[in-house]
Amino acid sequence: MAELVTAEVKPTLLEHLMEIRGRLVKVALFFFLVSLVCYSMAEDIFDYLAAPAMGHLVYTHPVGAMMAYLKLAFVFGAMLTSPYTLYHVLAFIGPAMSKAWRRGLIFTLVAGYALFALGMGFGLHYLPRAMHALLAFDRPGLRAMIDVDHYFSFVFLIIFGCALSFQMPLVLYFVARIGFIKVETMMKHWRLAVMACLILGAMINPTPDLVSWMMVCVPLFLLYLLSLGVMTVGQRQRDRAAQA
Question: What percent of the chain has pLDDT over 70?
């Protein structure tokens, strides 16, 4: 009895390119639609984010206000579209990965997105305090008139700076998992970590208010301590994998 051997047909380069194009078109259309919805809500988003400025915002160009609304729509559209974008990335590269790698990648993306959202929430919670400290310099004859474009650049600096800082546990986990740095080394050089948290806190919080600065630096250092625990887990997993 003859046996039929069927070879696995691998997609050609052209087929891969066509698939990438199709997925990019879908992501672009979804981003456009979500951005349109965000633009329809731009006034509400603007009012929420502009509240800490306490009525000091102005625009110095005829299209300044419209550009501020467009910037808000595109930024929030990109954030809300990111899970859909990551889905298409996984759907494209997933077939070429083992089941263990796929599980690890999905966990990484979910954890990273959750930490990013927590960081954004912390930044939004901290923003009014930072603006209050900066506007405290107002006095008779000296009143803040903040250009709306500069204001939202400052807002996004704080929000996304905090969101990226909250990725520290995930980054250090993988650093320990691949054996690049050991947790003992991080614990030994804790003074450098404190200095890094102080510098990063000053970059996120460009205000002269000490309390506002500490409100950023202390959570960053707590994240560092949490990262040491996560690094310990990653290092133990690496050691078990090496012994297996």
Answer: 96
